[in-house]
Predict the structure.
Amino acid sequence: MRDESGAVIRLEDYRPTDYLIDRAELDIRLARHATRILAKLHLRANPAGRPAAPLVLDGDELRLVSLAIDDVPAAPEAFEASPERLVIHAPPAQPFTLTIETEINPTANTKLMGLYRSGSAYCTQCEAEGFRRITYFLDRPDVLSVFTTRIEADRDEAPVLLGNGNPVAAGDAGGGRHFAIWHDPFPKPCYLFAIVGGRLDKVADRFTTMSGRAVEVAVYVEPGKAEDATYALDALKRSMAWDERVFGREYDLDVFNVVAVSDFNMGAMENKGLNIFNDKYVLASPETATDADYANIEAIIAHEYFHNWTGNRITCRDWFQLCLKEGLTVFRDQEFSADERSRAVKRIADVRVLRAQQFAEDSGPLAHPVRPRQYREINNFYTATVYEKGAEVIRMLKTLIGDDAFRRGMDLYFDRYDGTAATIEEFLACFAEASGRDLGHFAQWYEQAGTPTVNARGHYDAEAKTYRLALTQATPPTPGQPEKSPQLIPISLGLVGQSGAEIALSPAATAGHMPGVFVLDGPSATLTFTHVPERPVPSLLRGFSAPVRLEIDLEEDDLLVLFRHDSDPFNQWQSAQTVATRAILRAVGAGTPPVPDRRMADALRHFLAMRAGSDPAFAAQVLALPTEADIAREIGHDVDPDAVHRARRLVKVEIGAALAAELAELYGKLSTQEPYAPDAAGAGRRALRNACLDLFAAGLPAEGEELAMRQFRGADNMTDRFAALGVLSHLPGTARETALGEFAERFRGNALVLDKWFSLQAMIPEPETLERVRGLMRHPAFSMGNPNRVRSLIGSFAMANLTQFNRPDGAGYDFLADTVIALDARNPQVAARLLTAFRTWKMLEPARRAEAEKALRRVADTPGLSPDVADISGRSLS
Ligand code: 0A1
Ligand code: ZN
């Protein structure tokens, strides 16, 4: 256990280290239970540090075998070693070397941090503080070292040996062992260090960079699975080309390797030249992966690759600056996917994720700024706020200063900070310089937590032909920030006439900003538009130009004008969502089906007739109702999840029944015999077809079940098979159980596919589900040791089954509490992540709130908790 558990680390306490490590030469002798690491560190005093200070190196569960200073064995009184620390009392004044030998047991490493075993392979995960579990080091991102790594292993056990940088030598080491030496010329913090050793297959190719250098690119996977890595390899090459084209960034080593492992705490990791991935985000074949899986693989491959510049070449000064690399890199991967696929659909999908994850986090006890000011456990800050809201902040910056100044700012940033560990202030200064703008107020997005609400009220003066729009903003208090200041909010807007024509904006309305963008930077503002020939419908926050909630007093008919005619596809989609949200909220209030609203069904019917053929992916987004969690957030307090579920169901049934004929027809039209390809166009058609099936089955369950069963059995790809199973999973009865059984049988032995099967069952909104989940935990394919299994079964139950996790009797909460406590002993990071399912407990109605609090307290009061779980339970209760 790390002894600093409970200690608060604060941004204001940052100071440089007293020593620097210019070079690190590692010799790692892999062995299952006793791996030896010989580290020769070349140190010198940091001119920015305190002179003649003791040297304190970080460790975590380490055993020191030997220590030498300048190649002379260290006298016992010269140092102090514990599993967590190595202190050299009086280091030499001149540059010196430390030679440290440690021994670790990768097989016993169930935390999956540091060096561990996944299947039969050895791999590492060092971000954020895992390198200290390999050797003693200055384990922080502002210490940049050039690494040379020799890896030695049994040739039989680990014929493939990979490290950071370029391969420089390999050979026989005697006694059935062999070695490889890797050298990474780019100074990097140790969190980017990685090695892999194992019996792995690969797919490889060559990428020629824009300056003509040849790079060997390869994806390594478990033996026999190379075929399933070809899509990832292709996505990698497309990412490399895109970063050259769009940001002018070229790759810098001779090789780029990706390795897929089955035991991984997160999605993937951007280690220099050696990305390590959760195999869920690499392996794909039409039979086993859905279109969504392919899109995720493409996005995550791109994300990790883009880190080579935003994260690796320029890293973070400290972990408070995490969003400097993560927010920016998410923005970059979102733009990549938007360019590779449909921009509008990608934006809608990203905003759905932002609202589901980040808005939820931002309105509860775990809310924190994009750049937090303090933490107890940094692993708990790889959050939707740092990643997703961090990306929104970059997007707003681009909206505010325009594409050209944004690109100039990026160029300046790369130029000025290459090879350094930077801060948000340094980053923003590049854009202030490139645009000539003062970004002082804008920078508050990094400091102030909470989701602002923007309220808009419009008034049209028919006589004067003017339209006045009154805007106000307010941000609710968040933990540690009771008072909020107005944010600087870019509001992309337009005015739409009743017949759909865009009304020209009088230039004065948005003067001083980018065209069509009004910047709300105070508590309120009034915009006056002149020469407005008719009563307009305002289209605000186009493209979701800021991460805020928008309240606007539009009538249903006005929303439908936007749905039909808005030139901004995001707001077209948004207005349909708003209409549906209102219908569901009315049903929650009434407890009965809302008065059937013909207008909405008519509008959808018209929309499908006009747009389904030309833009099926977009149409699928329109047909997908707001989720139960969306509705719960909209209600905001005293939420009864059962009432939300019933109301949403009622509306879905009503729409499904009203449109049954059209949905069936469209479903039929979209049923092609073309062979499966995971491209955006095909994915769009499948998404729409499956959205039709889902709505149709809600309206006409008996017919829907038959159709779904036929699709389930006849599908030639996982997208269609799994979508049909999803529809069946919501229809209680024997067909569902039969289909679930057939699916399990067909994919026996394929862990990643069975994860989908676990997840689907965990999300069934019925009281028997908790028992089903408990039963599935005893399934031979389930294991508490594998993060993907845990997330699929238990994570889906807790995070994506609103009614059953929030059972009124509290059994869902108790189950999660028990599971988190049990898992904590094995893998604190994954346990802490699971516990964030309680992040919205305060908005529940009082009886459930009391049950949730009881379960959270039980976790918090458990002796011997990891810092990870102690931090989340403590903050959740505060
Ligand atoms: N930097 C990675 C995310 C990551 C963070 C921590 C990890 O520890 C287990 C692993 C991965 C990314 O943004 O993809
Ligand atoms: Zn990242």
